[in-house]
Amino acid sequence: MTPPHQKHFHTSNPEEATAINRSLPEFAAAQTTDEDEYFANHQPPTYLPEIEEEVRGFVAFHQQTTGKRLALVTSGGTTVPLENNTVRFIDNFSAGTRGATSAEYFLENGYAVIFLHREFSLLPYSRHFSHSTNCFLDYMTERDNKIEIDPKYSAEMLKVYRKYNEAQDSNSLLLIPYTTVNQYLYTLKTISEALKIYQNKAVFYLAAAVSDFFIPQSRMPQHKIQSSATTDGELVIRLAAVPKFLSRLVDNWSLGAMIISFKLETDNNLLIKKAKSALERYHHQLVIGNLLQTRKKEVVFVSPGREEWIRLSDEEIANGKEIESEMIPAVIKHHDDWIQASK
User: Fold this and answer.
1) I need a surface site. Which of 104, 155, 194, 205 has the fewest CB within 10 A?
2) Where's the DNA/pantothenate metabolism flavoprotein C-terminal domain (predicted)?
3) pTM of the predicted model as reported, rounded to 2 decimal places
4) Torsion of the alpha carbons at 10, 12, 13 and 19, rounded to the nearest 10
């Protein structure tokens, strides 16, 4: 079976038609009525049928040809537009580092990866160069009136290039973009339903930073908010809570897949408590907890009845080791156990 050609989608352009206190209780998990109400009142992205075609072709290729396990990795932050023809929006700080890095290690461990990412956030492999402190041209030099890779960078770039080519040649990496929280939710649902045929051989690695609040389409102005619309020099915006769809993903959208969510906190005293609370609420398999301040050097895996810390030493970090190189093999061990238990 020939690998399908991947299309490129742009999600950051608006469509014509259409600091939380973490000590407080979480919003209730979304029920069927919440799901039905959301999708009944919010328009899907116009390109969604093309995304579905791409994903189903990718899944069928690996199911019929390679037999690889499949990881859906979500990455980056979602935006909350303040106008339909968007000029202003609410965003978060996520650059997609964890998701892009983790996707590489899933690929190196034999998985095919659907990478659902914020458009223009970090991507697997290109992340090593596209978001560094150097301009990309700093990696180049001129010789004999031709441009080439500077020799001092060539060995590292060759290593990354070979891994990237291997992923491309084996059709093991599918890039699917989103920008807004609405695009993310619709695309996640579509991909999840396409992955049902993979059952327990699929793993959902939900590392995206999804907005907690949004403006429903029914309340969103069509055009740019004018300064004259302010009251006493203040712009007052009413936000609604984004329904918590993880329970629907577990119960309805996927079928037997292992589901991993992330919990980011800034208070160490809340981290384990919040992770355990998420497991009890959504009944999925694993929560990966991390603190904003130490997320690149330690994480905690919280599964039913178990806590497991993964930490890097200062020396390992200084030598360039990435914590995802330890996280993904640990995730795969959990996936092995899940497949065995599912039988």
Assistant:
1) 155
2) 193-296
3) 0.91
4) 160
The pair of three-digit structure tokens given for residue 49, joined into one six-digit string = 């049928």
Kindly state the average pLDDT of the residues 47-51: 98
Lowest-pLDDT choice from 21-30, 54-63, 257-266:
21-30
Asked if residue 167 lies in contact with residue 114, where contact means CB atoms within 8 angstroms, the answer is no
Residue 28 has pLDDT above 90, yes or no: no
The full 3-state SS of the chain, as one line of letters, equals: CCCCCCCCCCCCCCCCCCCCCCCCCCCCECCHHHHHHHHHHCCCCCCHHHHHHHHHHHHHHHHHHHCCCEEEEEECECEEECCCCCCCEECCCCCCHHHHHHHHHHHHCCCEEEEEEECCCCCCCCHHHHCCCCCHHHHEEEECCEEEECHHHHHHHHHHHHHHHHHHHCCCEEEEEECEHHHHHHHHHHHHHHHHHHHHHEEEEECCECCCEECCHHHCCCCCCCHHHCECCECCCCCEECCECHHHHHHHHCCCCEEEEEEEECCHHHHHHHHHHHHHHHCCCEEEEEECCCCCCEEEEEECCEEEEEECCHHHHHCCCCCHHHHHHHHHHHHHHHHHHHC
Q: How does strand 202-206 pair with strand 70-75?
A: parallel
- Residue-wise pLDDT tens digits, 222-242: 999 887 766 677 888 999 999
Placement of tokens 């045929």 in the chain: 197
Query: How much is the mean pLDDT over the chain?
Result: 91
What digits encode the pLDDT tens for the residues 160-182?
Answer: 999 999 999 999 999 999 999 99
The pLDDT assigned to 161 comes to: 97
**Residue 84 has which token pair?**
């339909």
Q: What angle do CA 107, 278, 322 make, to 5 degrees?
A: 35
pLDDT on residue 134 = 81
Q: What is the CATH number of domain 32-256?
A: 3.40.50.10300
CA 101 – CA 125 distance, rounded (Å): 8
